[in-house]
Amino acid sequence: MNYPADQLKKAILPLREKIINHKVYSAIKDLEDVRIFMQYHVFAVWDFMSLLKILQINLTCVSVPWFPKGLADTRYLINEIVAGEESDIDSNSARKSHFELYLEAMEQCGADTSQIVHFTETLKNTGNFNSAYTQANVPHEARSFVDATFRIINSGKDYLQSAVFTFGREDLIPGMFVSLIKDIHAKFPDSISIFKYYLERHIEVDGDHHSHLALQMTTNLCGTKDDFWEEAGQAVIESLEKRIELWDGAYNGIVKRNFTVIM
């Protein structure tokens, strides 16, 4: 029985519902709207990998000499997801990370990849987030979202990292959005087939099995410590609020574009 986990799930349900039913989805009408959405979403796709990798560093042995570390079920979960995220297959069975697949989807769709590419290249070369944000002209909402993720990463607290990974990043894209993309794909198959594949693949590999193991991982790390669960809950709430803010940014970008077209 995972009473603290059940209580946390109940506490965040209104925020999750707000994300799943966000107005950004109903605002998407055509390819240009999808492009704007992707230019925001890609930052969440990118920083998810850093959250996952810090869990791999903290919960498995990645040093030499090797020694068993933590629970085998947790090691299995983290390593399996890392393998899938870093080296999954595309629709042609070529190996690539989900981030690289997403960039290809953006390029096929005609979405602007210059911000995320400039940001990641600058960050890789300088290690300075503020400089990377400024040079790439990253939207405020995306910057705020990434900053919140890296505050959890830099906290050094694996139970917070696990909680945000478990409750704040999974299954937050609703089925209606997938259906919408399928409808657009029927009209423009040469422009959105990779994005459609990405969404379907994401749903396939992040099914109930991973969700169950992730929940067990967080339950193990928080244990019976009330202060851990309280802190984890606060971290998850902030993560979900930042996701809403990110979606607000995408929505405003879509509305602004459509208003400009009408004018």
Keywords:
about 260 residues, mainly alpha, two-stranded antiparallel sheet
In short:
With about 260 residues, the protein is an all-alpha fold. About 80% of the residues lie in helices and about 0% in strands.
What can you tell me about this protein's structure?
The chain has about 260 residues and is mostly helical. It has helices at about 5-20, 25, 30-60, 70-85, 100-110, 115-125, 130-135, 140-155, 160-165, 175-185, 190-205, 210-220, 225-260; strands at about 90, 95. It has a two-stranded antiparallel sheet. Helix 3 packs antiparallel against helix 13. The longest helix has about 35 residues, at about 225-260.
Number of helices: 13
Q: Give the overall silhouette.
A: globular
Any idea what the radius of gyration is?
19 Å
Q: Tell me the span between the first and last alpha carbons.
A: 57 Å
What is the strand tally? 2
Please outline the major beta sheet.
Answer: 2 strands, antiparallel
β content, as a range? Answer: under 5%
Write down the secondary-structure element order: HHHHEEHHHHHHHHH
Strand order of the largest sheet: 1-2
Overall pLDDT level: 91
Unreliable runs: none
The level of helicity is over 70%
Structural class: mainly alpha
